[in-house]
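Entry:
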Amino acid sequence: MSHEDITLTITFRGTSYTVSLPNDAPLSALHSRLELLTSVPPSLQKLIYRGKKIQHRQNDSGTEPPTIIQAGLRDGIKVQMLGSTVEELGQLNAADSAHQRKEQILRERALKPQVKLRSTGSSSTSSHKYRFHRIEPLTHLPRPETAIECLTTLSKDPAILYVMQKHHFSVGLLTELAPHEHPGLLGLNVGSGVTIKLRIRLDTYDGFRPYLEVRRVLCHELAHNVWSEHNNGFKELNSQLNREVAEFEAAAGEGAHQLSDLQDTYQPSSGEEVEALTHVLGGTGLQGNDTMEDRRKRALEAATARLRNEEELERSCGTSGPQKQSG
């Protein structure tokens, strides 16, 4: 076989490299040259050309390694290279290991029996116990500082804390749900309150979902602290939580709530009045010229919208398991 130089065009991540080598040079020589150009070690290089694929292999059999021409490479061929640098691979492995450690800790916590503290009847003890004990954003996603602000606001929302203390809900960890990991889910309750995960980001990762939408999902997931399945018991509790959040905010708008004493609250006279007062969640109340017919119309519109939202949430909820009733 005659000794001739061949020239190859190697494309890697949008950059083209021209490599000239003797056609009878071992294939390992090409891999070594590409390592100098791209910092990708031979063991992580994958060469693709004309539907064929070449990967570096250690020669442990004692036979002669294949040459460039024996591998099917010819002068002028364009080759695409795939691969990762050692540094990139190390970062990826570290991220995977950290994620696996967190998941293992959560699984172990879910298997441990919950320690029930003896109540002293103190409002300060109740507020300390029935709350979100920890919040944590996904730091590998963009803008983690905005994510932690969103989670903090949710964890300190007065209406949410009100229903948590009223129903004795305790959540170990409030965190976010990455859209690319669970594209069909808006929320997930792990271990009946051990962890609640919420999708707070847009699918495109360039922004965050509206706060009131996320809070409604949070109410849905809090109901899973008691009921695992989407049965009638769950639906009644979910509706009750959303109604109590609306009542709390309607009363807060009237100045009836004192945060130091959540027991002394305003109670609307009927469900229709609640819906009329809060036809947009977080609304400020009635207009001075509203008639009873206006209130009833808004109540009907709100009820219809609520049913649609609850059906959507059930389809987008990842929580399931054996039915559990509260004690």
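The radius of gyration is 30 Å.
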